[in-house]
Structures are given as structure tokens and as C-alpha cells.
Design brief:
Elements: H1 2-35, H2 40-74, H3 78-82, H4 88-123, H5 131-145, H6 148-175, H7 187-210, E1 213-218, E2 221-226, H8 229-234, E3 243-244, H9 248-267
Helix pairs in contact: 1-2, 1-4, 2-4, 2-6, 4-9, 6-7, 6-9, 7-9
Organism: Brevibacterium jeotgali
Protein name: ABC-2 family transporter protein
Transmembrane segments: 15-36, 42-67, 96-118, 138-163, 184-211, 242-260
Length: 273
């Protein structure tokens, strides 16, 4: 059943995903061509344009998938979706899995676009190293200070944060479509998201005090060190080269709670707008 639902999700969203991906490819290609001649004004514009697309491609996909989720679940076509003889939680699981698979594919597309952008930088004399040489140098630098366990943890945390972000979108769309807030139409999900975002920021700030830990240099490598948020704010810290890790706990917890509550909303057959 999940496989069938995933196929349906892909059929519905493939044109949108393909269009966004095609635009990203064209814009990065155009940015590379602007950078390549080395002309000062155009090169700077190309650098900024290419960087914006590479950084914004996946976030744009996330937002568009969230809007599609709301439309296909609670908009006009939502009437058909909500009346399918399938448990609501199962439909949500397929939708959520599809969104995250597309996002993971989007990360891969971003990586594949980097060589095109790098070609423009190299042709314009903006970088001295070739792409593969730069990657080898970066990898050597990372592995010299980062243990395999911390590296794995960093990748897991990054993916977890992306999943949590998408969970917040789906939560907002679903809870914002419950009565009575669904009377606001599309404004319901927007209001829910703004409230949820505010709560997440408060909890994240509180976690910095509750879990005073960060990643910093310990001897010859990176490891867990004390992170004093008050000292950082007041300028009394000895070093500013510490990245706090406390923000991960509330965001990952919020993401997990959002998935649970959204599945519960689906099983209750929320009202349609």
C-alpha cells in the first residue's frame, strides 16, 4: 500500500519537482557562464546568483512540497484524499516519506550542481584548486580533527534537522486545517507555523542554558567542551570557536512530536477547507 501511495505522490509532484530542478540547473549554468570571463561586475553577480541557488534549492523544494501537501490533503483535491478507504496515518506516512525522499534527492542534485558552479569559479580565476583537489584537501582537514563517530553524528544531526523541519511544515498544515482554525483557509497553517516557530526558538534558547555543551578543540581534535552562553553573549568567553549542540535536542524532539501529532490528526479525519 505504501508503495502504491508513494507512486501516486510522485506522479502528482514530478512536474513541480522537475521544473524547480530544471530552473536550478539553468540558473547555476548561467551563473557559471557569467563568472567564467572574469569580468568584475558580472562575476560578482554570478557568484552570488549561483551560491543563492545552491543554498536555496532544497529549502525551496521543502516549502513547495509543504504547500502541495496542504493542497492535496486539505484543499480541493483533499476531499478525494480524505475519503480514501485507507487509514489516515498510512496516507500521512506515505506523504511524509515521499517528501523526505525528494528532499534527499534534492541534496544529491545540489552536490551534482557544484562542479558546474566550480567550473565557472575556476575559469574566472576565483579559485586556485581544481574541484577534486579542493575536496581532497577539505576531507583531509576534516578527518584530521573530527573522529568517525563525531562525523557520523554530524551527518545524522543534519538529516534529523531537515526531517524535523519538514515535520513542522506538515504539522502546521494539518493542525491549521482542524476546526476552528481552518476557517482562516491557508492562513490557518501559516498561523500555526509562526506559533510553532516561536515556541521552537524559546525552547532552543532555554536548551543553551540547560545543556551547556558544544563542539570545540580538545587537544588535537574536536570534541565536547563546555559552552557558556552567558559568557558568549557578554563577551567573557575565552574562545568563540565553539559550536553549541544544545539546540539539537529541542528541535529533534519537536520534530518527533510533530510527526506523532500529525499522524493523530490524520486518523481523526480533520475537517476540510
Amino acid at each position: 500500500m505504501i508503495t502504491t501511495l508513494l507512486a501516486h505522490e510522485w506522479q502528482r509532484t514530478r512536474v513541480m519537482v522537475g521544473a524547480v530542478t530544471g530552473i536550478a540547473l539553468l540558473v547555476v549554468g548561467a551563473a557559471a557562464l557569467l563568472i567564467a570571463p572574469g569580468w568584475p561586475g558580472l562575476s560578482l553577480f554570478g557568484i552570488l546568483l549561483g551560491a543563492a541557488v545552491l543554498c536555496g534549492y532544497v529549502p525551496v523544494l521543502q516549502v513547495l512540497l509543504a504547500v502541495d501537501y496542504w493542497r492535496s490533503s486539505y484543499g480541493r483535491t483533499g476531499y478525494f484524499t480524505q475519503t480514501l478507504p485507507i487509514r489516515g496515518g498510512t496516507i500521512f506516512a506515505a506523504k511524509f516519506l515521499h517528501m523526505n525522499l525528494v528532499i534527499l534527492a534534492g541534496l544529491l542534485v545540489t552536490v551534482l550542481l557544484v562542479p558546474l558552479y566550480w567550473w565557472g569559479l575556476a575559469s574566472g580565476g576565483m579559485v586556485d584548486l581544481g574541484l577534486f583537489a579542493a575536496v581532497r584537501e577539505l576531507w583531509a582537514t576534516i578527518t584530521a580533527v573530527l573522529s568517525p563517530l563525531l562525523m557520523l553524528g554530524a551527518v545524522a544531526a543534519f538529516l534529523g534537522l531537515m526531517l524535523s523541519g519538514q515535520a513542522m511544515y506538515t504539522f502546521s498544515a494539518s493542525i491549521g486545517s482542524e476546526t476552528p482554525i481552518n476557517r482562516l483557509g491557508f492562513g490557518g497553517p501559516v498561523v500555526v507555523y509562526l506559533v510553532l516557530y516561536g515556541i521552537s526558538q524559546v525552547l532552543t534558547f532555554a536548551a543553551l542554558f540547560a545543556i551547556p555543551l558544544g563542539i570545540g578543540m580538545t587537544g588535537d581534535g574536536l570534541g565536547l567542551v563546555r559552552f557558556d552562553v552567558l559568557a558568549e553573549v557578554t563577551g567573557g568567553a575565552e574562545s568563540d570557536e565553539v559550536m553549541p549542540v544544545a539546540f539539537l535536542a529541542p528541535l529533534l524532539l519537536i520534530g518527533a512530536l510533530c510527526v506523532w501529532r500529525t499522524a493523530h490528526s490524520w486518523n481523526r479525519k480533520v475537517a476540510l477547507t
